[in-house]
UniProtKB/TrEMBL annotation:
Cross-referenced Pfam families: M20_dimer (PF07687), Peptidase_M20 (PF01546)
Keyword set, alphabetical order: Hydrolase, Manganese, Metal-binding
GO molecular function, one term: hydrolase activity
UniProt signal peptide: none
Name of the protein in its database record: Amidohydrolase
Binding residues for Mn(2+): C87, H89, E123, H147, H342
SUPFAM superfamilies cross-referenced by the UniProt entry: Bacterial exopeptidase dimerisation domain (SSF55031), Zn-dependent exopeptidases (SSF53187)
The keyword Manganese belongs to this UniProt entry's keyword annotation: yes
Cofactor(s) essential for the protein: Mn(2+)
Cofactor note: The Mn(2+) ion enhances activity.
Species for this entry: Halobacillus dabanensis
InterPro entries: AmhX-like (IPR037484), Amidohydrolase (IPR017439), Bact_exopeptidase_dim_dom (IPR036264), Peptidase_M20 (IPR002933), Peptidase_M20_dimer (IPR011650)
């Protein structure tokens, strides 16, 4: 690609931000990324049955992969439900594209392959599995990701060499009973009242306070348009978070015990199904060490922050579940992000994007220099 013809990182971000697409529907996003990469020497692989793509530059060993998530959330913004990049994936794509442009020039006389994974459906916790199925990490030695961090975790100019994400588990549950007339509440069990009791019992779960965790009902649907019908059935969702996989197992067992207790006490079927499940991060010290060197080289040692522990989850960690020998870490990018990730009006300091890209570049070069 003619360097002068490349869009700037700010221009790429602006385009991606203005054209968000939800999980598994990132067709225009994939086309846009491909249109930029087709003007480089990158080897591109697209897929017939899903969005997203792979791109490679360089040749030989080692093989280093960098992953960018490409999907947006679907949420209400100013009273309208729409696709919205409120998790920073637009910035992730722009930074990783800039990293590819820069590394293409640097790898001319260096042995090593860099693979770029533009992954769909992170928000559904499904895209990593699909990319694994497509062979995205089959021959990869090191895998890196990145994520913007809220102001409460990192300030602008700070970078963490790893994010210790917690485990996340999402349940979908049903209360199954019969409706009754509003004048005859003794003839059924009110599903809304049962839901309120389930919420209260979940709120009363107490585990080791030294390990962060949370359990909360995030949706509840019961009843209809007729206000004189007592609903016997309802559906609801439960969001579980825990900093370790062991505590997640304990928390899940407690929630299942709550549902079983309510079911037995009131004689109503209450069943739950795990719809999505993300493990806690398992960090690799070697991958972290190279990221630390990349941060120090790109932006200075003063910008280096400790490994960041956060209760959020990311399907990035499925790559190491499937490939335990894979050395992986995720860069935490301080950018004064507020009010918070997934807030419909999320904003962040966009001036950090070039620095974050340079960190990725220097991390890759540190690895290649170490293997030379």
């Amino acid at each position: 690609m003619n360097k002068n013809a490349r869009p700037t990182i700010k221009e790429m971000f602006a385009h991606l931000h203005e054209n968000p697409e939800v999980s598994w529907q990132e067709t225009r996003t994939t086309d846009y990324i491909a249109s930029l990469l087709e003007k480089t020497d990158a080897r591109i692989k697209r897929f017939d049955d899903c969005t997203g793509l792979l791109a490679e530059i360089g040749s030989g060993h080692p093989c280093i992969a960098i992953r960018a998530d490409i999907d947006a959330l679907y949420q209400e913004v100013d009273g309208v439900s729409t696709a919205n990049h409120s998790c920073g994936h637009d910035a992730h794509m722009a930074m990783v594209l800039q990293t590819l442009f820069t590394l293409e020039e640097k790898l001319a006389n260096v042995s090593g392959t860099v693979r770029f994974i533009f992954q769909p459906a992170e928000e559904k916790m499904e895209g990593a599995w699909k990319m694994i199925e497509k062979g995205a990490v089959d021959d990869v030695d090191y895998l890196y990701g990145l994520h913007l961090r809220p102001i409460q975790e990192l300030r602008t100019g700070q970078f963490s060499p790893a994010i210790q994400h917690g485990a996340a588990r999402f349940l979908e549950a049903t209360i199954s009973g019969e409706d009754a007339h509003g004048a005859r509440p003794h003839l059924n069990k009110n599903a809304i009242e049962l839901g309120a009791e389930i919420i209260q019992m979940i709120n009363n779960i107490h585990l080791d306070p030294m390990v962060p965790y949370s359990a909360k009902v995030t949706s509840f649907h019961g009843g209809g348009e007729s206000t004189n019908i007592i609903p016997g059935s309802a559906t609801f969702s439960v969001d579980l978070r825990a900093q370790t996989n062991d505590v997640m197992a304990e928390l899940t067992a407690k929630v299942e015990a709550v549902l079983e207790a309510v079911s037995k006490l009131y004689g109503v079927d209450v069943e739950a199904e795990v719809k999505s499940d993300v493990p806690a991060a398992v960090l690799d010290s070697d991958a972290i060490a190279h990221m630390e060197r990349g941060i120090a080289k790109a932006v200075g040692a003063d910008a280096l922050s400790p490994v960041l522990q956060t209760s959020g989850g990311d399907d990035f960690h499925f790559y190491t579940i499937k490939r335990p020998e894979l050395k992986a870490s995720m860069l935490g990018v301080g950018c004064d992000l507020q009010p918070g990730l997934h807030h419909p009006k999320m904003t962040f300091d966009q001036t950090v994007m070039p620095d974050a890209s340079r960190v990725l570049v220097e991390t890759v070069m540190s690895l290649l220099a170490g293997r030379a």
